[in-house]
Every structure is written in C-alpha cells, then in structure tokens.
C-alpha cells in the first residue's frame, strides 16, 4: 500500500505536498548543484543527468578541495558510490553577479 500511485502528480491525498527524493532529483536536472564526495571534495557545476545508482554527469564542473578551487573541467562523471550528497546551488559565478 506504500507505492500504489502516491508519487503521481495530483494524486497525493495530503494536498500534494509530498515530494520524494526521486522528484527532487528530477527537478534539479539542468540546474547548478554541489556534489559532495565521501572524501570531502566538492564538485560544483550543472547537473546533466544521473541514474538510479547516483552516477552523475555534470557540465561546467569545478573541483573544490577545502573550499579552494583546484581544477575546472568541461564535463565530469562521478561514480555514485563516492557521493555523500547532492545539493542545489546558487550560481557562484562572480563575473557579472
């Protein structure tokens, strides 16, 4: 009785305010994110896609170690078993903001 159709839009009984982790991940595709790895390294960029194993493809990726920018990559792929969390990010580009 837990999944019967409760994750379909408009079918939520409690005002439709329930948002699953899957809904969140679908909603942030194409947006700036921060991906924190188990090692403590952060990757910031545009989320291109991800799969059920949390394998992540990113664009315009920047690598931060201890809060300092270390590398810039065009595209990056992160294996899901290294991911601690994914968070949405406000744009950190300082050239015109």
Percent of residues in β-strands: 35-45%
Strand order of the largest sheet: 4-3-2-1-5
- Number-wise, the strands total 5
- What would you report as the Rg, rounded to the nearest angstrom? 16 Å
List SSEs in N-to-C order. HEEEEE
What is the count of DSSP helices, taking H or I runs of 4+ residues?
A: 1
Mean pLDDT: 82
Shape: globular
Q: Note the main sheet.
A: 5 strands, antiparallel
Task: Write up this protein.
With 97 residues, the chain is mainly beta. The chain is 7% helix and 43% strand. It has one helix spanning 21-27; strands spanning 32-37, 42-50, 56-65, 68-78, 83-88. Strands 4-3-2-1-5 form a five-stranded antiparallel beta sheet, with no helix packed on it. A hairpin with a 4-residue loop joins β1 and β2. The longest helix has 7 residues, at 21-27.
Short account of what is shown:
The protein is mainly beta and 97 residues long. The protein is built from one helix and five strands.
List the helices and strands and how they pair.
Elements: H1 21-27, E1 32-37, E2 42-50, E3 56-65, E4 68-78, E5 83-88
Antiparallel strand pairs: 1-2, 1-5, 2-3, 3-4
């Amino acid at each position: 009785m837990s999944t019967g159709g409760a994750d379909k839009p408009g079918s939520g009984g409690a005002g439709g305010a329930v948002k699953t982790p899957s809904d969140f991940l679908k909603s942030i595709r194409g947006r700036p994110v921060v991906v924190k790895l188990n090692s403590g390294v952060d990757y910031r960029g545009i989320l291109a896609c991800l799969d059920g194993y949390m394998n992540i493809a990113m664009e315009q990726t920047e690598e931060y170690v201890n809060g300092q920018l270390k590398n810039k990559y065009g595209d990056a792929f992160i294996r899901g078993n290294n991911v601690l969390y994914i968070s949405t990010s406000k744009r950190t580009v300082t050239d015109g903001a």
